[in-house]
Specification:
Strand order of the largest sheet of chain A: 1-8-3-6
CATH superfamily of the largest domain in chain A: Jelly Rolls
CATH topology of the largest domain in chain A: Jelly Rolls
Number of helices of chain A: 9
Strand content of chain A: 15-25%
Shape of chain A: globular
Structural class of chain A: alpha+beta
Largest sheet of chain A: 4 strands, antiparallel
Number of strands of chain A: 8
Helix content of chain A: 40-55%
Oligomer: homodimer
Distance between the termini of chain A: 46 Å
DNA sequence: GATTTTTCTTAGCTTTTGTTATCGTCGGGG
DNA sequence: CCCCGACGATAACAAAAGCTAAGAAAAATC
């Protein structure tokens, strides 16, 4: 529980105990078994969760039926279907546990309410959105600027090597925007050629 | 000037005249001649502007020297180097006028100050970041899910055809993550094969 | 209105990626 | 303990994209 408080304070250091209590009552623990979904396309259950232990992936289902994994979640990161929460629409994406996963869950409606009632949470919402925007923007830029091989090298050099260590390679391939076969070739090139 | 007020109210409908005056005093008109820069890599001049008339592009300079255009701005959209403002660091990107352009400019520091002083602006900051996050996220997803040809078709089908009408094609190619030559081929394919 | 300059298309060739399929390995479940 | 399914490497082929260059078309400049 204090991990969620610590998370909030990373974004809003001034958050008081009293302010924390406004949210704390709405928080409940939850568990996902490996393979189980936190969000599934078509659902509308706007919830946010702090990932305490484990890992999840975010993926889309293409019309053809294949899955495309575009994001990973690890410890101490928020799990949410941002578009669904913000637009108030059913999910178009899926979030699934890659391993057994422990969460702290609360309803987005509660946070939305706190935006109106408590400036500290409104600030949290702003800073959180800004933080995610920076990350998403950097990744989009990388996608537009770099070749697949450069993107793989960039991932190696980045602080995100957790992804490479904890995620099956064919999902990393999706994440980098290439096919699994292609990533395997790129890895072979990078390994030999240096 | 009222266009900026209208912009703010699109995000915060409840913004009062008094609240608007808190920002209004800091706003100044500006003009960019075609080819002139609003932001240049290495600068640190955190400003935000509403684009009144004209168009701009956002581009990065690669080590090799070529430019990669990743975004376009048109009327009634905000112009800003979000990463530079948020991180308080010099710009790594460039924003340049594609045509003669009229702006309303204010310093990010003023807005940052208003985040502390006026809840309506903090809300504006949150909703603005959320709005941009949704857009960037959708574009990243498109980039990871769709082939270049599919992305071109998606652009045709989207509400962003302004880009195709008002921007040189080799910049659109960058925006879609392909080379100009490749986009030309894709267009030929789409035109013939329908 | 003529002349640069920029932009777009097309072509030929190379490189990379996508596709499909096979094989080896590893792990879990029966 | 064995078998099956998931995962990754590799190969062969097809398709697409990158690169270079040349020429046509359109725009901007003078």
């Amino acid at each position: 529980m204090h991990l969620l408080l610590a998370y909030l304070r990373r974004f809003v250091p001034t958050l008081t105990e009293a302010e924390w209590q406004l949210l704390a009552g709405a928080v409940r623990p939850a568990h996902l078994a490996r393979g189980q979904h936190f969000v599934q396309a078509g659902d509308y259950r706007p919830e946010i969760a702090l990932l305490l232990q484990g890992s999840c992936r975010l993926y889309y289902l293409r019309p053809s039926g294949e899955e495309r994994t575009t994001y990973f979640f690890f410890e101490n990161h928020l799990l949410a279907d941002y578009p669904s929460c913000l637009l108030g629409q059913p999910s178009q994406l899926n979030i699934q546990a890659l391993t057994d996963t422990d969460l702290l869950v609360f309803d987005y409606a509660v946070l939305r309410q706190l935006y109106d009632e408590c400036p500290a949470y409104e600030r949290f919402g702003r800073v959180l959105a800004e933080y995610h925007l920076l990350g998403t923007d950097a990744r989009l830029t990388e996608q537009l600027m770099l070749s697949p091989e450069e993107r793989y090298r960039a991932l190696l050099a980045s602080g995100k090597t957790k992804i490479l260590e904890r995620v099956p390679q064919h999902l990393v391939a999706n994440y980098l925007g290439v096919t699994p076969v292609s990533l395997s070739r790129i890895r072979a090139r990078v390994a030999r050629g240096r």
